[in-house]
Structures are given as structure tokens and as C-alpha cells.
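User: quick one, fold this
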Amino acid sequence: MSEQRGDRTGRGDQGGEVSAAWEALVATARRTVADGLVVGTSGNVSVRVGGTGGTGGIVLVTPSGVPYDRLTPDDVTGVDLGGRQVLGTLVPTSELPLHLAVYEATDATAVVHTHAVHATAVSTLVEELPLVHYMAAALGGPVRVAPYATYGSAELAANALRALDGRTGCLLRNHGTLTHGTGLDQAYDRTAQLEWMCRLWLTASSVPHLTPTLLTHDQLTEVTEKLRGYGQRG
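Assistant:
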């Protein structure tokens, strides 16, 4: 890692991989704004380059307080798994402990955190997103709500990990969403899907004198098995 610190632009042995990953991260961060999942500089995105299972690699993260449309290739910001900055000079996101906790506990290579409106609203109402749609299976099961804790704190990271147990996404009470995946596209898609399910439940539950029907856990299990063969092979 000392060689990476000496090359603060990421142009060492991993230069090409880091540059490509940073470009993809910035594109994903900008997409969260374009799709209305964050406002201003709220929310954050990270991607892991190299290393697996909580060891090794560099975590590229969005910097704190910098509008995503202003980020350039020279703004690459990266830390090791211990949180020590090894790339760039911009201060990493204040939610760095949240991202690092996910990488330490899972095999994720990307994490997306947003303040999506409908998801945040749901986080204030329930302990778990009601099973209003079968796509909850794509996140590993019923989506839990992590208890509130101050942003950027170790307590928030611990609460999120408990809510993520066996899941790839959760809600953060009075705060937003957190999803992870094997790449930026997957992590982002899971965030968008979670926000859509929250909007669906809020819409259905707001109809006077009617209560939304919910799926059973057996029905969700059946979908979980079916999704294993979903999509293209190869």
C-alpha cells in the first residue's frame, strides 16, 4: 500500500483498473442524482478494486461534500480496508465506516447508499418493508429497517450489518437505503428496486378503507428459487 500512497492518482500497477473503476463509480453516483434517489451530495457510492472476503484491495469512494458532476479522473479517492487513505487528497465520504463494514462482512464489490424519498419515508413507519411485491426475493427476503444512529458512526454501521444479515439491501431508519452487490450495476439496480417497492407499498397503503394484500413467506421462497434461473446464461 505504500506504493499506492506514493502515487496519489492511482497510476501504479493497478492504475488502469483503478481508473476504470473510478469512472464507473462517478457514473453511478451521477445516476443516483439523475434518477432522483439523492439530492445534492447526499448519499454515497463505493467500489472495491482487488481483494475478497474482507482482505486486501482498495475501496474507491465518493468524496465528502463534492457535487458528483464536478468529479474528474484526477479526483480519485481511495482507502484501504482499514480506512487509511491511499489514493487522492479529497476527504472520503463521512459514511466510510458504513461502506467498510459491508466489505468486511461480505464479498460485495460495490455499495450504494441513498436518501431516496419513498424508502426513507417507509423507514419511519415500519420495522420491515411489508411483502407487497415478490421482488423482495431479489434482495434476499423481507427488507429490514436498521435502527436509527447518527450518520458516519460505528453504531450505524453495526445496525446496518444486522439488518443486512442474509440480505443485500436494507433501510436505515430516518435516513435512507443501503444496498450492495457484485458490481456497481447490481448494487444500483437493487437500490432502485428497493425504492420502487417502497413507493408501491406507500401508494397501495394510502388508499382509504382498503388494505394491501401481502405475499406469504412460502410464496416468497418459491420466487426465490425461480429467480435462480432468471436472465441470460453465459
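User: anything notable?
Assistant: The longest strand covers residues 44-49.
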